[in-house]
């Protein structure tokens, strides 16, 4: 397939590839090879023909004068001296470097990549496939976003688990812990409202009075990172009152006696109230709701696992859903996110590369601690870095580490749609295609719909998909050094898509052929009974390190003047994506820093004046916005923007976890001229 | 066996006559019974009559509650006379269309003698009136579409409007003015069709009295009248139209129409393509008139009021407080009502005599109060600028519902 | 009688997601800065999605010296950009900020309630996009609900213009904030 094929006018099916709960079905209206408008796909059972604001801005996302048009080379790196080059020149520069490094070090371990969630399409695993195809290399592992929660859910269930979101509409009680669907999962809101119209009660627990919290019938504000305690408090009341689903617990759980003993002996309600900041009355109301209302659904948001108590909190909340018996009844449920994509063959991701005579596997480094781990590598050091679907400079922590690492790298290649802050630090940028310009296949991590993404329009200028780049670069490598890569570059995108639809997958999604997906998304059949065949583990349980002694409550642990920094998603961006779109950035100036009324008074910071946020890793100047509902010692900043807040993220690295973004602390002060 | 039925002769006679319309029908009945007959609408407003009566001044008082399909005795009073008579309801399929009234000029005869003839005539009237109503409604559909376009400026060419208008017998080569009548307390869900129809009839009748070919339309809770400027003297015409509006309001008050009626008058436009402005102006005048308690608000006279209504509320509150705040606080602290006194004075153009009469105060008392007011506000009330400020402040109070 | 189209806005169900606002741009491809529809915060915890409300007594209409406005029989107020001279009297007259002046074209444009879609029996793009169902289209000639109100806290005065919109207010809720 060539990129210059002129596309037929008509309506195409696309899927929004963003790192988002929706994975929305899109209908793209194309005329004369141009995307005229988009609408939601009414055949998508979860999104039901709706998109979000960002989705409706896609015409501007595609035809944006700021999009990268052709490959460009920057000499020297960081100078801003960009020169347009041809794709062939770009491939030659990259392939020459890879081959030279291979000759220098006798392997490809000096070559690595950093790729994350910029595009969740299954065909975007072409990046992994491309690196696999050259044999052992340096491979990032882990998931900075959701690993902690994933492992915690796995500990309870033995596998990942999240109820079908459409079923939330039939619940009578919805309890959301640390999620803000009104901003980050807008399409879920209609199921919440459907439930509410049928008499359901919505309870939201969050340190921030979010837009979702605004809509709650009952909102309980707690101190950041104390969800665990609130959950224990609720369990204490339920057990004390004898209101738990005893027969279900005996039949379906492990660790009940230990759990009960732990709650009965270690948890005191006054202590819970002090730690969480929630009054006893609120804890009782929450317990009452769980006790009297069924079916109840419990939703653990990603927010609660962005701190070091995350794993414990997820486990404790899951345990409430279990002991109230809500997992054994129709429309009772538990929500986090699921990892069904792992049930696909993922041929690109799992592509097996050629064997190396002495090195058997790739070198793995933790995504959540990338620069430090990479800098520690020797024999050979990391010399070549490929960045795709990722804007490191606005999203990752440890920017000082990144600076050091970049200085040590001989070639940095960034594939992106725009000249991002990360692209600005690269030697080479390659223009990426939008999802309208490529074929792909999508599975959500929230709902259970499988959907196709059709190539609807010709590429913008010289943009190419990750897969196309992988095909062409590996071909170039083999031209220069025959047999260097074993990437099957003759395979077309549709071949890869069809290969993912194994008979087992086809059965699960009620597909008879690939073409079925062209007529609309298909939903996975979920056998609820089968989900509960295994027993659940109640938390805290021995396998997770036993019934550990609880941390001593130290109310003064947080020093005065030190603020917890929370950096949730903004409404009209996903990380730094969409920030180049004028439609979505019409008024709010960026770098708004929300502070509490008390902090503003104490530090004499007036509304909408310049202020400074700083810690040992750096300093950010932003505009103060006083938020009267913010806890006293919390500061909220949006991600990305011209002065990205990730600079201040401090992550205490621990194995097997995602990044604890919300454990970062900062100090704040009025901004004064002359202070650096 | 079917028994041979005897159909009285009068049935045949009335039936024949009824095909010509309600008027010939009651004429016939009147001849048959040797009594004057009249027909009214459901609100006892005269529809037609065989006697020469002053149409505006007739009042019918039934002596008891009506029973269906029966005759009741009643009293009929005009400007000069009071007569007794019988009244029968005119209705069709439970829809009430009006009354048939027989006036007995001498003494009351036995009702039984007349009952059959009157009830039968009432049925014939019902059929005729219903037929007329249907034709009117059918014609009205096209008429309403045209009027909608006229009122919303959708017909941009003057000539088109003149030609269309001619189809209904309206002459759009002369200037027109729009008057809106509606209910004071209504919302956009107002759906009481019956009340709106009463209002329509009132307006229609009053226009006919003025010898005008009425252009009237119902839109939601509004009755909109498009009135040709039949009098070339603008001043006189304004007085006439004000009288017309006043008459409609008086009529509505007389029949105790609820909710209360108010009106608004737009400007006169010579170009019918600009008439939509008159309509919008009439509606603005209506709303402001309600707030200002002006009986016949003309848009042209509401310049200052419109500016004040649209102005920033916070700013207006400050202005109001600046002008009258001291007085309000004085009243509050001393349980006085000097503000009311000043408001009445302003409403009477600062004329002491009129004001004293209006609030039943002795001139000297009023003079004392005014002095007090001047002290509190620290102003001289004979200063024109002060007067203007005070008038404006009271307008703000009414328009923006300050208290 | 004719259909009288209007909006029905449920403040309790609006999450301020602005999908309506951008769906309008997507459908009508209006330039940046021209906001036929906009979501604003009316009061704490009340969002309002507002556009032209296709008033029963449109002030834009009355003040326009060029007679550029017209009102369809279904109630949609339209502006003919070809007639507009950009005097902006309508911009000042409208209490809802609906008419949008484009400094480049020197013309005013505004929400036309997707009349082309209406003619095909489709709801406006903003209504189609509303994921929670907070924004709907209704026929005001038949709409009736005793819980509906004519205005919301913080909304402009509806007296003169009679906007074709009905509201549902926000319901009371229970909150526990941390002690300060």
UniProtKB/TrEMBL annotation, chain B:
- Protein name as annotated: Helix-turn-helix domain-containing protein
Tell me where in this chain the CdaR GGDEF-like domain is found: 158-287
- Indicate the segments forming the PucR C-terminal helix-turn-helix domain, all copies: 338-396
- The record lists the membrane-crossing segments as none
Please state which protein family the record places this protein in: Belongs to the CdaR family.
InterPro entries documented for this protein: CdaR-like_regulators, CdaR_GGDEF, PucR_C-HTH_dom, PucR_C-HTH_sf
The record's Pfam families line, in alphabetical order, gives:
GGDEF_2 (PF17853), HTH_30 (PF13556)
From TrEMBL, chain C:
Signal sequence bounds = none
Q: Which InterPro entries match?
A: 4Fe4S_Fe-S-bd, 4Fe4S_Fe_S_CS, ET_IronSulfur_Cluster-Binding
Cross-referenced Pfam families? Fer4_11, Fer4_4
- Keywords of this protein's UniProt record, alphabetized? 4Fe-4S, Iron, Iron-sulfur, Metal-binding
Ranges for domain 4Fe-4S ferredoxin-type: 5-34, 42-74, 75-104
Q: Which Gene3D superfamilies match?
A: 3.30.70.20
PANTHER family documented for this protein: PROTEIN NRFC, PROTEIN NRFC HOMOLOG
The name on file for this protein is 4Fe-4S dicluster domain-containing protein
Native source species? Neobacillus paridis
- Output the lineage of the source organism: Bacteria, Bacillati, Bacillota, Bacilli, Bacillales
């Amino acid at each position: 397939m060539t990129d210059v094929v002129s596309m037929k006018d008509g309506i195409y099916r696309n899927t929004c590839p963003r790192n988002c709960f929706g994975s929305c079905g899109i209908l793209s209206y194309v005329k004369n090879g141009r995307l005229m408008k988009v609408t939601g796909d009414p055949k998508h059972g979860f999104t039901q023909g709706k998109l979000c604001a960002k989705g409706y801005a896609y015409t501007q996302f595609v035809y944006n004068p700021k999009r990268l048009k052709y490959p460009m080379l920057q000499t020297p790196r960081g100078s801003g001296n960009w020169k347009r080059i041809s794709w062939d020149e770009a491939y030659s520069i990259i392939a020459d470097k890879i081959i030279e490094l291979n000759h220098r070090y006798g392997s490809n371990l000096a070559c690595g990549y950093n790729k994350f969630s910029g595009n969740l399409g299954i065909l975007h695993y072409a990046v992994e496939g491309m690196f696999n195809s050259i044999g052992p290399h340096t491979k990032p592992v882990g998931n900075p976003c959701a690993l902690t929660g994933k492992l915690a859910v796995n500990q309870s269930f033995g596998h990942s688990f999240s109820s079908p979101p459409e079923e939330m509409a039939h619940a009578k009680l919805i309890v959301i812990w640390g999620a803000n669907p009104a901003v980050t999962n807008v399409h879920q809101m209609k199921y919440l409202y459907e439930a509410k119209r049928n008499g359901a009660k919505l309870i939201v627990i969050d340190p921030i009075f979010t837009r979702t919290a605004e809509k709650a019938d009952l909102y309980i504000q707690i101190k950041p990172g104390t969800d665990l305690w609130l959950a224990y408090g609720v369990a204490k009341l339920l057990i004390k009152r004898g209101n738990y689903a005893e027969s279900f617990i005996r039949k379906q759980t492990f660790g009940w006696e230990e759990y009960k003993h732990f709650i009965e002996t270690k948890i005191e309600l006054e202590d819970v109230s002090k730690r969480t900041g929630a009054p006893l009355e609120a804890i009782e109301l929450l317990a009452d709701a769980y006790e009297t209302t069924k079916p109840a659904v419990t939703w653990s948001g990603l927010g609660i696992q962005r701190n070091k108590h995350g794993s414990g909190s997820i486990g404790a909340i899951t345990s409430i859903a279990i002991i109230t018996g809500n997992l054994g009844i129709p429309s009772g449920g538990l929500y986090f996110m699921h990892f069904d994509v792992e049930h696909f063959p993922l041929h690109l991701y799992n592509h097996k590369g050629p064997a190396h005579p002495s090195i058997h596997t790739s070198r793995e480094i933790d995504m959540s601690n990338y620069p430090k781990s990479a800098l520690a590598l020797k024999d050979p050091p990391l010399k070549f870095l490929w960045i795709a679907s990722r804007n490191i400079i606005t999203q990752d922590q440890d920017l000082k580490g990144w600076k050091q690492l970049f200085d040590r790298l001989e070639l940095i290649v960034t594939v992106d749609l725009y000249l991002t802050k990360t692209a600005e630090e690269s030697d080479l940028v390659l223009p990426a295609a939008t999802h309208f310009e490529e074929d792909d296949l999508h599975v959500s991590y929230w709902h259970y719909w499988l959907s196709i993404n059709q190539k609807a329009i010709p590429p913008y200028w010289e943009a190419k998909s990750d897969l196309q780049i992988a095909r062409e670069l590996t071909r170039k490598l083999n031209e220069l050094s025959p047999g260097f890569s074993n990437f099957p570059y003759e395979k077309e995108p549709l071949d890869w898509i069809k290969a993912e639809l194994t008979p087992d997958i086809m059965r699960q999604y009620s597909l008879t052929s690939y073409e079925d997906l062209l007529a609309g998304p298909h939903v996975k059949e979920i056998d609820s009974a089968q989900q509960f065949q295994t027993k659940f583990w109640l938390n805290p349980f021995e396998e997770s390190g036993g019934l550990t002694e609880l941390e001593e409550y130290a109310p003064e642990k947080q020093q005065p003047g030190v603020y917890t920094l929370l950096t949730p998603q903004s409404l009209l961006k996903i990380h730094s994506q969409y920030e180049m779109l004028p439609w979505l950035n019409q008024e709010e100036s960026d770098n708004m820093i929300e502070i509490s009324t008390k902090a503003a008074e104490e530090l004499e910071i007036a509304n909408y004046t310049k202020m400074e946020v700083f810690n040992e890793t750096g300093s950010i100047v932003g505009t103060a916005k006083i938020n009267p509902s913010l806890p006293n010692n919390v500061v909220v900043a949006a991600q990305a923007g011209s002065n990205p807040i990730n600079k201040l993220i401090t992550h205490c690295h621990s194995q097997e976890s995602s990044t604890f973004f919300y454990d970062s602390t900062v100090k704040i002060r009025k901004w004064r001229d002359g202070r650096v | 066996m079917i028994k041979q039925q005897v159909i009285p002769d009068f049935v045949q006679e009335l039936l024949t006559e009824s095909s010509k319309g309600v008027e010939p029908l009651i004429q016939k009945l009147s001849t048959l019974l040797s009594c004057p007959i009249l027909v009214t609408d459901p609100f006892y407003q005269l529809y037609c009559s065989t006697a020469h009566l002053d149409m505006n001044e007739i009042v019918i008082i039934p002596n008891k509650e009506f029973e269906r399909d029966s005759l009741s005795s009643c009293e009929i009073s005009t400007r000069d006379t009071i007569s007794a008579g019988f009244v029968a309801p005119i209705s069709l399929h439970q829809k009430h269309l009006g009354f048939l009234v027989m006036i007995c000029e001498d003494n009351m005869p036995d009702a039984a003698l007349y009952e059959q003839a009157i009830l039968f005539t009432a049925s014939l009237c019902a059929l005729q009136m219903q037929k007329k109503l249907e034709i009117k409604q059918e014609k009205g559909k096209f008429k309403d579409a045209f009027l909608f376009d006229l009122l919303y400026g959708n017909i941009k060419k003057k000539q088109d409007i003149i030609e269309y208008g001619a189809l209904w017998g309206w002459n759009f080569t002369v200037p027109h003015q729009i008057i809106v009548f509606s209910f004071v307390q209504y919302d956009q869900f107002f759906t009481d069709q019956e009340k709106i129809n009463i209002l329509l009839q009132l307006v229609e009748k009053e226009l006919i009295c003025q010898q005008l070919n009425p252009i009237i339309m119902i839109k939601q809770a509004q009755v909109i009248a498009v009135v040709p400027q039949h009098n070339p003297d603008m001043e006189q015409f304004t007085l006439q139209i004000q009288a017309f509006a006043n008459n409609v309001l008086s009529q509505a008050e007389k029949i105790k129409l609820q909710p209360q009626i108010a009106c608004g008058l737009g400007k006169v436009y010579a170009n019918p393509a600009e008439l939509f402005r008159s309509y919008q102006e009439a509606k603005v005048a209506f709303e402001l008139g309600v707030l200002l308690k002006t009986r016949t608000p003309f848009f042209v006279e509401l310049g200052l009021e419109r500016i004040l209504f649209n102005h920033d509320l916070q700013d207006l509150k400050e202005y109001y407080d600046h002008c009258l705040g001291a007085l309000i606080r004085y009243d509050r602290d001393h349980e006085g009502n000097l503000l009311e006194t000043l408001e009445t004075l302003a409403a009477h153009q600062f004329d002491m005599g009129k004001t004293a009469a209006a609030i039943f105060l002795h001139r000297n008392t009023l003079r004392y109060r005014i002095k007090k007011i001047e002290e509190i506000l620290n102003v001289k009330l004979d200063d024109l600028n002060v007067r203007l400020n005070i008038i404006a402040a009271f307008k703000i109070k009414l328009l923006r519902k300050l208290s | 009688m004719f259909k009288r189209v209007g909006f029905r806005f449920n403040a309790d169900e609006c999450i301020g997601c602005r999908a309506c606002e951008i769906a309008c741009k997507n459908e009508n491809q209006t330039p940046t800065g021209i906001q036929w529809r906009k979501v604003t915060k009316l009061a704490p915890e009340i969002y309002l999605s507002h556009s032209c409300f296709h008033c029963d007594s449109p002030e834009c209409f009355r003040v326009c010296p060029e007679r550029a406005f017209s009102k369809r029989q279904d109630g949609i107020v339209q502006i003919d950009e070809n007639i507009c001279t950009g005097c902006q009297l309508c911009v000042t007259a409208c209490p809802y900020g609906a008419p949008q002046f484009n400094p480049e074209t020197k013309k005013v444009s505004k929400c036309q309630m997707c009349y082309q879609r209406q003619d095909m029996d489709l709801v406006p793009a903003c209504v189609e996009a509303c994921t929670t169902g907070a924004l709907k289209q209704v026929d005001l000639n038949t709409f009736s609900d005793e819980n509906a109100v004519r205005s919301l806290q913080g909304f402009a005065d509806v007296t003169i213009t009679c906007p074709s919109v009905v509201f549902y207010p926000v319901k009371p809720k229970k909150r526990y904030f941390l002690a300060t």
